[in-house]
Amino acid sequence: MPVGTLGTVKGLFPDQLRAVGTQKLLANTYHLALRPGAEVVEELGGLHRFMDWDGPILTDSGGFQVFSLAGLRDIDDERVVFKSHIDGSILELTPARAIEIQQQLGADCIMCLDECPPADAPIEQIAEAVRRTTLWAQLCRDTQARDDQALFGIVQGGIDQSQREKSADKLVPLDFPGYAIGGLSVGESPTEMYRTLDHTTPHLPSEKPRYLMGVGRPEDLVESVLRGIDLFDCVMPTRNGRNATAFTSTGRVKMRNRKHMRDDAPLDPACECPACTRYCRGYLRHMFIAGEMLGPILLSLHNIAFYHRTMSDLRVAILEGRADSFRSECLAAWESE
């Protein structure tokens, strides 16, 4: 899911996203509650109409901001109180309020409020986050009033196997339509993340979607799908695109490098996006060197297309029984840069 935190995937029109394979977008409860406000979005027809997206939308609950804005919030069993990163105003999120905001926004998939601890948190803090996340999951389940929104429970526990198992085992009886794995890609190594997935996904229902939040690199997507994950979101494709880095079938390409100045080759011959079929590397580099807006737009679109193509190709490989060889081929190609 490309990330449209504030109701837009930066620099891209919805029809452009559709054209490169996007099916579903993500937006953020915390940020939209601050501006323009959930009431405004509701008054203007809900998030789909507001951002002109007729496909599914998932909204995060604000739980990630518990981690990313740790210096601007206070937390207890009742609520999280944020001091706005914009103007210092107060935003209070209780489990009930997080659900109410997401109901006003009108997303198709909504998330329980959770506590996401940092990767280096002591085990006592991780255990406390699991306890609180479980408590809040029940309160969110009790609050939900709309039957047209799929509420996902979120498994926490850091990289501690026993805490992950405990979190999953407490959430599964609540019978959520889907389950997310949070609290990864927050400072742990890829090996630690993969090991945590190996232990966690078997505790989640295989017939329901499993969503790994905030991940990640192309190799992380491949490794995680083969460990049972179905859904992903991450800012990496668009953030890297805006900063002149492209993901390609042969590895990452730094578009500002001087070696691309006179390069007439396409960015990625295996890609059919506008950046690759209409422009050469020399032109794309020129856009960034000259500070032109088109450069970040084209690379953002290309990176999203690359992520979607990778997932589509992996899906075919799984159906054809060659997932392991697909993984090996991808990792070898991406490491050859």
From TrEMBL:
Keyword Glycosyltransferase listed: yes
Family matches, as Gene3D superfamilies: Queuine tRNA-ribosyltransferase-like (3.20.20.105)
Record-level Gene Ontology MF annotations: metal ion binding; tRNA-guanosine(34) queuine transglycosylase activity
GO biological process: tRNA queuosine(34) biosynthetic process
Needed cofactors: Zn(2+)
Gene Ontology CC terms, in alphabetical order: cytosol
Annotated catalytic residues: 60, 233
tRNA-guanine(15) transglycosylase-like domain ranges (all copies): 1-335
Catalyzed reactions per annotation: 7-aminomethyl-7-carbaguanine + guanosine(34) in tRNA = 7-aminomethyl-7-carbaguanosine(34) in tRNA + guanine
Enzyme Commission number(s) of this protein: 2.4.2.29
Name of the top EC class for this enzyme: transferase
Residues where Zn(2+) binds: 271, 273, 276, 302
Transmembrane segments: none
Textual note on the cofactor: Binds 1 zinc ion per subunit.
Alphabetical UniProt keywords: Glycosyltransferase, Metal-binding, Queuosine biosynthesis, Transferase, tRNA processing, Zinc
Family according to the record: Belongs to the queuine tRNA-ribosyltransferase family.
HAMAP family linked: Q_tRNA_Tgt (MF_00168)
Protein name from the UniProt record: Queuine tRNA-ribosyltransferase
Source organism of the structure: Stratiformator vulcanicus
